[in-house]
Amino acid sequence: MGRIARWSFSAIVLTLGAVITAVSCVNPLTAKIKQDEYSAAGFLNAPVSEVPSGRSVTSWESLTFFFEEPIDIGTLNLGGSLASHYQTIQNPMEADQITVVPNPTLWPTGLQDLTISCESESGKVLNDASYSWTVFEGICVDDGADPGDADGSVAHPYTTIQEGIDAVDTYYGTGTVIPVRLAVGTYGEDCDYGTAWVAEMQPWVSLAGGYRSDFTGPASSGATLLSNTADSDDIFANPASVIYCDASVTSSQTIEDVEIDPGGSALSTGAHAGIHVDGGSPTIRNVTIEGASTSGPEYVQAMRIDGGSPSIENPDFDPGHAQAISFGLSVYGGSLTVSGTDFAQHRILAGTGGTHAISIFLSSGCTGSISGIRIEGPTSLPLPIGSIEYQIRGGCIEMYDNGVSITGNQFDMYPTTQLYAVYEFFPGSGPSAFTDNDFAIPNTGSSYWYRDHDENVVVSSVNYDSTDITNGGTTGKLMDPAGFDNYSSTFGINE
């Protein structure tokens, strides 16, 4: 009976302790005095959790608690929803700590709780100290964290994105896509030119940026910026891209809510870009890629696709300034899907290349669709003269033989700096469809909204200069490869 009475009394004192804790918000000194009286009465204060109650924890990380004095491990009892999922309790040499390890490897996700009861070595009693956390599957990365004890947990995040990516296989294995949560900050790898990426995607990994440092939700300000730190002045090697996705990356893997500085190159060769999809099929969502506004490199691409089936949702791509060539999106095969819902925010720009500045370049053999975005040509570019037309170009879309559907977009063109908004380079190189597109800037005698080499493409429902035209409702105009001899002022087509 004495034992029962002792535990019942402790429950009353614990309830009083909760009231005292609430009062401590007003008078910390009073709370400290009451807490000392509680401890002196033979009861143990609740241990301090390394990750405070009410926060988030990853499903693989251990939970560590610090007691005010050494405890008798034989009296330790755990309760709550996590009590049936722990594997071991580590009791280090310091007997005033315990670390609870999940079993077999992961905690269940969602809102979970844990209670702790025990006695100290001196006989003080602790009854049902309660804690709760939101458990999630993931790895944590924060460039401002201490790298010395980093393990990818909420309490000890990694400091580089690649560490987080590589840890997914260690903690979770394969079979489920696991997000790597990125706190706001600036991430860049010090690397030899062309030898590494800020992030090389692996199977079963997604990237999600914009988190607070406690990883419980989006930060109120700031961004997760990935920057190419390679030396772009090294003309003897090709640079690396900031994010690289090979053929092992699938459509269930996402890259979202990050900003990227694409860097650039002193060479025209090489697949360097802000994001390089090399046969993979990632979903890229709410990503901003923005290059230098002035004094850029020789060549820069916001994003490059070499095969695969990537999906690009709500892009904001601007390659920025290049001394020679700038591409917003360059596609060299594969099937792409580009979509947006807001012309003001979801856009692909051409940048300001010295000789070439193209918003979207579609090479031979690519398929897919582009819809719902603003496609903006260069604001400055030397105009071609005579035979050098093919050497100096600028526009919204330049295409070779492809099967891409281009529908429901807004084209912004600047007639004083470019020849065509849409440019078919060879006969038979038109898109599979070109419908319901809006051309926001009126045509002039030296600039055309569409250059069609033949009648292979249906051009319909085009809003041009505030007038809805269909160009006959069936086909585009026949382009005379010899040059500019037949300008159509009605439709703005070079025929």
Task: Provide a descriptive summary of the structure in words.
- The chain is mostly beta strands and 495 residues long.
- 10% of the residues lie in helices and 36% in strands.
- The strands form 5 sheets. It has an 11-stranded parallel beta sheet with strand order 9-10-13-16-19-22-25-28-31-34-37, covered by helices on one side.
- α1 (2-24) packs antiparallel against α2.
The value of Rg in angstroms is 30 Å
Mean pLDDT across every amino acid position = 77
How much of the sequence is in beta strands? Answer: 35-45%
Distance between the termini: 102 Å
Shape label: elongated
Structural class: mainly beta
**Helical stretch count?**
3
Instruction: Let me know the largest β-sheet.
Output: 11 strands, parallel
Helix content, binned percent:
under 10%
List the helices and strands and how they pair.
Layout: H1 2-24, H2 28-40, E1 48-49, E2 56-58, E3 63-66, E4 71-79, E5 86-90, E6 97-102, E7 110-120, E8 125-136, E9 139-141, H3 161-172, E10 178-183, E11 185-187, E12 199-200, E13 205-211, E14 224-227, E15 243-245, E16 254-256, E17 259-261, E18 275-277, E19 283-285, E20 288-290, E21 299-305, E22 311-313, E23 316-318, E24 325-331, E25 335-339, E26 347-349, E27 356-362, E28 367-371, E29 374-376, E30 393-399, E31 403-407, E32 410-412, E33 420-424, E34 433-435, E35 438-439, E36 448-451, E37 459-460, E38 462-464, E39 467-469, E40 487-488, E41 493-494
